[in-house]
Write a structure and sequence with these properties.
By secondary structure, the chain is mostly helical. It has two domains: 62 residues, Arc Repressor Mutant, subunit A; 129 residues, Tetracycline Repressor, domain 2 (Orthogonal Bundle), CATH 1.10.357. The protein is built from nine helices and two strands. The longest helix is centred in the middle third of the chain and has 27 residues.
């Protein structure tokens, strides 16, 4: 029972800190603020996370991880028919992108200083996503379904189209019909690659 209570306390602290760091950034949230929000004390936070920086790092690891997204993309891309795999990749990308990973406060260590560790985590994850897409495009080129071209540049164009929709939504709250956009991008990309 005590282990469950400890886990619940640590999780409550993580959730509250996550919201506060995302909204205000590292420098603008104090341990006292987190204690007030969670009804705990500073020693409890230090017990679980070691320091405010340790708590921030735990929040960043949890919030900006794209592992579930990458797993969904990987499963979508596994289709025996590479064309269906790429179509599914595009659809999954638009429907499952982890928008919470881009809460700006999770990248701000100090008021004006980018947290390089958090940015590197997302960069590495996005590179894994790009690698999956490149493999699909390479496979379609080698099967003759796509014309011979630089698969990395073609993939960058595809991801650029997809990211435009995602980032318009995240940063500007622009509502878009992602299903229609998915069909359009798929058709556009496949025609461009013939």
């Amino acid at each position: 029972m005590q282990a469950q209570e400890q886990h619940a306390t640590a999780e409550k602290i993580l959730q509250a800190a996550s919201k506060m760091f995302a909204e205000k950034g590292f420098a603008n949230v104090s341990v006292r603020d987190i204690c007030r929000e969670t009804g705990t004390t500073a020693p409890v936070i230090y017990y679980y996370f070691g320091s405010k920086k340790g708590l921030f790092d735990a929040v960043a690891r949890k919030q900006i991880s794209m592992e579930t997204f990458i797993q969904k993309l990987s499963k979508a891309a596994e289709a025996a028919d590479l064309k269906k795999g790429l179509e599914s990749f595009i659809s999954t990308y638009l429907s499952s992108f982890p928008e919470h990973a881009f809460d700006i406060g999770l990248y701000m260590r100090d008021t004006g200083s980018l947290d390089k560790h958090s940015a590197q985590i997302v960069s590495d994850d996005l590179e894994r996503v790009r690698g999956m897409a490149v493999a699909l495009v390479d496979g379609l080129i080698s099967k003759g379904a796509f014309r011979k071209t630089d698969s990395r540049l073609a993939t960058d164009c595809l991801l650029g189209m997809l990211n435009r929709v995602i980032f318009q939504h995240i940063h500007f709250a622009k509502i878009s019909d992602r299903e229609s956009y998915s069909r359009f991008v798929t058709d556009f990309f496949f025609r461009a690659m013939k």
